[in-house]
Design a protein that fits this description.
Mean pLDDT: 88
Order of helices and strands: HHHEEEEEHEEEH
Largest sheet: 6 strands, mixed
Shape: globular
Distance between the termini: 25 Å
Number of strands: 8
Strand order of the largest sheet: 1-4-5-6-7-8
Radius of gyration: 15 Å
Structural class: alpha+beta
């Protein structure tokens, strides 16, 4: 998992080095998400990188009844991860990323719950790793989810890697 997370650190480093315009002009979360996906795609050769991807093969990603649901569609059941790294045809789900802009004052619980669900090994579409990112003008706050839960140890490791790359304040 550390190898994959190191690729995320590299993508974030490139993103912050090349996408300063986005922060200088206070562009929206979807724009940040798309541009980060472009940089992730360079790191994950042989994988597909998509934004707002709601499929597993021909099936729509939906949370099981009784779990927190997304309100991204009129049915309120479909899941739209911000960024996924996967293989569409197999399907093989490696990484799900939820991105928030630092100025977003909505509670983070929805995105965190989505990552718990997306990495839950009991669900048919489980991703191996989930990453929650809060993108500030010059720094990143992060959490890592594995097997349906926040992984404190891996989150600390990832945060240190971001700090080593100059992406965490302090």
């Amino acid at each position: 998992m550390q190898t994959e997370l190191d690729k995320v650190v590299t993508a974030l480093s490139e993103f912050y080095a090349r996408e300063t315009f986005l922060f200088e002009h206070d562009l929206g979360e979807r724009t940040l998400t798309h541009r980060l996906a472009v940089h992730l795609e360079k790191q994950f050769a042989g994988w597909d990188v998509d934004c707002d991807y709601d499929r597993l093969g021909a099936r729509t990603l939906r949370l099981p009844h009784g779990t927190i649901v997304s309100t991204d569609d009129h049915l309120g059941k479909s899941i739209y991860p911000d960024i996924v790294v996967h293989q569409r045809d197999i399907p093989n789900n490696l990484l799900a990323v939820e991105v928030r802009k630092a100025g977003n004052h909505q509670p983070p619980e929805h995105d965190q719950q989505k990552l718990r669900a997306l990495t839950d090994p009991h669900l048919w579409f489980a991703y191996w790793i989930g990453v929650y990112l809060v993108l500030g003008k010059s720094s990143v706050v992060s959490e890592v989810y594995v097997a349906g839960a926040l992984d404190q140890s891996l989150s600390r490791w990832f945060s240190q890697r971001l700090k080593d790359a100059g992406l965490v304040a302090g």
